[in-house]
Amino acid sequence: MKKNLKEITGSVDEVKKQKTLKVDNDGSDVEIPEGELNPIEPFTEEEPIVRKEPRWMWPTNPRFVNAYKYFMMVHSGFLAFFWVFRISFEGKPLFAIVLLEFYYDLVFTVDIIRILRTPFINESGKLVTAFKPIAYRYLWSWLLFDLYSYFPLALFRYNSNRADGGYNDIVNLMKFNFERLPRFYKIMLMFQ
């Protein structure tokens, strides 16, 4: 098979039937096993398929994308108003508020997965679907703010003794809910 094969004599059906093929350039016969015979292109080797895309990408059909945007807008809008009232009027949160905060952490975890699995168009206009460039881009944009906002402040405030008159610097810092502010930045960007 290492010989330079220029032209095959005979039709594709004849080539299938024969085990030896005659080559025009020097008149010698070359023996090829039947399993290696490709009737469409007899002497080309197939290149292995290299999978460059990740196994799973976030769905990009418009109906799903719009439904997810509305889902996140409702949740983010609720956070924008609810957390402001919590910061203003709440001394010690109810346990239901702690559970609600864990639910929102789950919602924003799904959003982090969405960001890490959504392709983007880079500066040169190419669609980037590889995981590493997507993760690198997210690392330098919102990942640290999103991870910072996972601090379970409501749980710490629920367990604190601030309502009983115990004050210290940590409780006073937690009183202002600073860790929720990065989620407001995303809301501000959504409405620009």
**Fraction of residues in β-strands:** 5-15%
Residue-averaged pLDDT: 71
What is the makeup of the main sheet? Answer: 2 strands, antiparallel
* Secondary-structure element order, N to C: HEEHHEEHHHHH
* Total of DSSP H or I helical runs spanning 4+ residues: 8
Shape: elongated
* CA gyration radius, whole angstroms: 31 Å
Low-confidence stretches: 1-8
**Oligomer designation:** single chain
Strand adjacency order, main sheet: 1-2
Q: What's the number of domains?
A: 2
Derived from helix and strand composition plus strand pairing, the structural class reads mainly alpha
Number of distinct beta strands? 4
Helix content class: 40-55%
How far apart the termini lie comes to 65 Å
Model description:
The protein has 192 residues and is mainly alpha-helical. The protein folds into 2 domains: 1-50, no CATH class; 62-190, no CATH class. The protein is 49% helix and 5% strand. It has helices at 12-17, 62-89, 95-116, 131-139, 143-148, 153-159, 169-175, 181-190; strands spanning 20-22, 29-31, 120-121, 127-128. The longest helix has 28 residues, at 62-89. The protein is elongated. The model is unreliable at 1-8 (pLDDT under 50).
